[in-house]
Amino acid sequence: MKDQVNRRGFIKKSSLAALTAALGTNIVFAKNLPEGFTPVLFDEKDALKGKSTELIVRGERPWNVESLPHLLDERITSVKNMFIRNNGLIPETIDVKNWKLTIDGESVKAPKTYTLEELKKRFKKHTYQLVVECGGNGRSGYQPSTSGNQWDQGAVHCAQWSGVRLKDILNDVGIKDDAVYIGYHSADLHLSRDPQKEAISRGVPIAKAMEDETLVAWELNGADIPEFHGMPLRLVVGGWPASTSGKWLERISIRNKVHDGAKMTGHSYRVPRNPVVPGTSIPETDEYYKIIESMPVKSNITFPKTGAIVEVGATTPIRGHAWAGDLKVAKMEISIDFGATWQPCKLEEPANRLAWQHWSTEVKLPQKGYYEVWARATDEHQVAQPMVIPAWNPGGYINNACERIAMKAE
Ligand SMILES: Nc1nc2c(c(=O)[nH]1)N[C@H]1C(S)=C(S)[C@@H](COP(=O)(O)O)O[C@H]1N2
Ligand SMILES: [Mo]
Question: pTM to 2 decimals?
Answer without folding.
Answer: 0.91
